[in-house]
Target: Type 1 glutamine amidotransferase domain-containing protein
Amino acid sequence: MAKILFVMTGADHWTLADGTQHPTGFWAEEAVAPYETFRAAGHEIVVATPGGVVPTVDKGSLAAEVNGGQEGADRIAATLAAMTELQQPIPLEDVDLGDYAAVFYPGGHGPMEDLAVDAVSGRLLIDALASGRPLGVVCHAPAALLAAVREDGANAFAGYRIAAFTNAEEIQAGFGEKAKWLLQDRLTEAGVDVEVGEPWAPKVVVDRNLVTGQNPASSAPLAVELLKKLG
Model:
């Protein structure tokens, strides 16, 4: 029916405040749940990454304890293995926004490393926002919004209400003291209105054509809201 662009991190690590590299990538549930929702509705998925590198899954996101048990973990892993689009990403630099009906950014700590400072992604986000296309961003992927800076120096998302991974969640995940910066703080500094929900509970915020989710549990309900906007 329509083509949906998944913009995904190309990073396989996140550089912490002490200079060490924490192995990461994209968070499995945040790609799998929306993928299943969009595919079930008959839509085609195209994956794009910086440089066209094959995205790396955060191994921590495959664990039983974050997938409701081993059965859930097995299902996530099986779906990932079947997502052939992940093995054939196009370079983000080659994306023509006109080819896509909607744009979606899965999270994971990877975007904190690359998409947060990726000017190509930043321009795509500015153009997607201005186009009125449904734009979905979840968990740590709002880090990419930090690169969406207009020529006048203002962030394109300033004044928008969003959900994103919170300081409280980062602290509870064990990275509050280790991170160079916290996502909620940086977004707030950029003029974005971050609405904070309960840690780890689903929270989706819709503001105009922008649909955002706070954490992994928000990825499935976010996909449903994005589909509503696609009609």
Notes: The radius of gyration is 16 Å. Residues 28-40 form the longest helix (13 residues).
